[in-house]
Task: inverse folding
């Protein structure tokens, strides 16, 4: 019986391929061995860096690029000035010289007398040096004249005042009217004012005070002055 062989198991069939691959590998190893370089460690220099050599190194000089200046702005358009003719006539003001010539006569101005305005000084009745003198109170010193004037005015008001007016107005009991007036520098009665429970009583009090006679004015340091005077009017209205 003759033995059978597997054609894929024949080694000699692929021998040329294996030979070629091995030859290529040997050539590659040989080439690498030839080109491989070795260095002697003793010849390697790892010394310090020479800084002087670095300083002597020339630094390249760079040129500064100069940018061209911007172009000048375009010239502004000239303004057109329109001349408007003024049709209105302007009246020129002629300033005359104030200098006088030798031929002109200088008018002399007379001196103007300034009249002194006397101040209206008021001095209270209680402290004035010379009190106003009521008619009939000329005798005595200043205190006596003051007391006489007060008595005369009180008696005059009691005589002239209409006390029945309060009853007609329906008022009862004690009534008080405060009156203030002034004796001016001529001795006349001025500035009469009053305050009462009823306007009719105020008018009656003012009417009576204005009936007072003219007096001799009071004086302070020899000059006539205004003297204010206050007078309370009291009366009882019977029920």
Result:
């Amino acid at each position: 019986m003759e033995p059978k062989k597997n054609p894929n198991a024949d080694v000699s069939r692929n021998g040329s391929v294996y030979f070629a691959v091995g030859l290529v590998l040997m050539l590659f190893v040989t080439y690498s061995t030839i080109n491989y370089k070795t260095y002697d460690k003793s010849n390697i220099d790892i010394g310090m860096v020479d800084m002087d050599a670095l300083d002597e190194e020339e630094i390249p000089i760079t040129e500064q690029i100069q940018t061209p200046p911007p172009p000048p702005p375009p010239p502004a358009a000239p303004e057109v000035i329109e001349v408007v003719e003024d049709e209105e006539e302007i009246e020129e003001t002629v300033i005359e010289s104030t200098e006088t010539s030798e031929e002109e006569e200088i008018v002399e101005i007379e001196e103007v007398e300034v009249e002194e305005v006397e101040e209206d000084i008021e001095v209270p009745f209680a402290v004035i040096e010379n009190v106003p003198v009521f008619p009939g109170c000329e005798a005595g010193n200043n205190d006596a004249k003051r007391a006489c004037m007060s008595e005369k005015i009180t008696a005059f008001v009691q005589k002239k005042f209409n006390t029945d007016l309060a009853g007609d107005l329906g008022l009862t009991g004690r009534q008080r009217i405060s009156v203030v007036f002034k004796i001016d520098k001529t001795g006349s009665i001025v500035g009469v004012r009053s305050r009462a429970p009823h306007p009719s009583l105020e008018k009656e009090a003012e009417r009576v005070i204005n009936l007072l006679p003219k007096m001799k004015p009071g004086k302070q340091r020899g000059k006539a002055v205004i003297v204010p005077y206050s007078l309370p009017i009291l009366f009882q209205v019977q029920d």
Summary: Residues 142-237 form a domain with the Fusion Protein Consisting Of Minor Coat Protein, Glycine Rich Linker, Tola, And A His Tag; Chain: A; Domain 2 fold (CATH 3.30.1150). Helices lie at 15-35, 51-55, 142-160, 164-168, 199-209.
